[in-house]
Write a structure and sequence with these properties.
This protein is mainly β. Helix content is 2%, strand content 59%. Strands 1, 2, 3, 5, 7, 8, 11, 13, 14, 17, 19 and 20 form a 12-stranded mixed sheet that branches. The N and C termini lie far apart (45 Å). 42% of the residues are buried.
């Protein structure tokens, strides 16, 4: 595998905070594990139209940080999926999808998860955000989708990437921040869109005073094209300890009373470890749950899975922030 390494001084302005850091970009193409299936273009539903029809367009529909839109899925069968497209996506927006499930019973929860997402440029130049949701519970139920936007800045261009090609980048970032990655594809033709996906994002602690964000992106379209990799950040609203887990192991937990229910959660792990084997954590799953309590009240929960990517037994801190209107 041929790789190239580039270093650049980055001035990142996000949410009124200026961050200056040295970013080392590592780029290459490699074989990747299969990604979750994605609905075809023709079967994707129009998220902007659905939100407009239900008066669910939010203050960040045209940019900025906050709720971009909210709409109801209707009833989705257990194991069922829906593909959605957010059209005319502003160039500076990185997106996070949350859910407020509805339809749980006293004996079964309602659970929704995003299983795939991508950024798309059409031949007209329009930028879109597409995602697939899944009912991962055991009963048919629905959810209000909470599409949140975080303002992002462009940090590096991938250059031309072949279909199926993958590149990985890293940046030094401050402690006590949460980061969201977005993409601006470029190079669509009259017959094919340019499509890129953030396949992974993880956090590394290479030193006592240093923290890194690693981002892996993939060309999931059918043509060679490129994308600008973007990062946006938020402050921290809540935090909790990630239990110590062995190298390669996964640790999970559930955040109760995930309020307000009109919000989406941004999650960022902060590993705690020591050289020369660096502690690394990745969020591998996020599931939104509606549970009916014994007293009949409804509670939204957030189930999270954190994977230790290193060979070192270590733990860390999980940072949470809600993005709402």
């Amino acid at each position: 595998m041929r790789r190239r390494i580039r270093a650049a001084l980055l001035a990142v302005t996000t949410l009124g905070m200026v961050v200056a850091s040295v970013g080392v970009a590592q780029a290459g193409e490699s074989a990747q594990p299969p990604q979750p299936s994605q609905s075809s273009q023709s079967s994707l539903r129009d998220a902007r139209a659905a939100a407009a029809a239900s008066n669910g367009l939010g203050p960040a529909a045209k940019g900025g940080i906050g709720t971009a839109a909210a709409w109801f899925t209707g009833t989705v069968a257990a194991g069922g999926t829906q593909g959605w497209t957010w059209t005319n996506a502003p160039a500076d927006a990185a997106y996070v999808v949350g859910y407020n499930p509805a339809g749980a019973t006293t004996s079964a929860t309602c659970q929704f998860e995003t299983i795939s997402s991508r950024y798309v440029q059409l031949s007209t130049g329009e930028r879109q955000f597409q995602f697939t949701l899944k009912n991962v519970g055991s009963i048919a139920c629905g959810a209000t989708v909470q599409l949140a936007a975080v303002t992002s800045s462009s940090l590096v261009s991938t250059g031309g990437v072949n279909p199926g090609g993958t590149q990985t980048y890293l940046w030094n970032v401050p402690w006590n921040t949460i980061w969201v990655a977005g993409l601006n594809p470029n190079g669509a033709t009259s017959s094919a869109a340019c499509q890129f996906q953030v396949t992974r994002i993880w956090t590394v602690q290479p030193g006592s005073s240093l923290r890194q964000i690693w981002v892996e992106v993939k060309n999931v379209g059918t043509i060679t094209c490129q994308a600008d990799v973007r990062l946006g950040s938020t402050t921290i609203g809540s935090q909790f300890t990630i239990g110590t887990v062995g190298g390669g192991g996964t640790w999970s937990t559930t955040w109760n009373n995930a309020n307000p229910v009109t919000s989406a959660y941004v999650i960022g792990p902060s590993p705690q470890g020591s050289a020369p084997t660096y502690c690394q954590f990745e969020v591998t799953r996020v599931v939104y749950i509606q549970r009916i309590n014994s007293d009949g009240s409804s509670q939204r929960q957030l189930a999270m899975w954190f994977k230790n990517l290193s060979t070192l037994s270590c733990g860390g801190i999980a940072y949470l922030q809600t993005i709402a209107a």
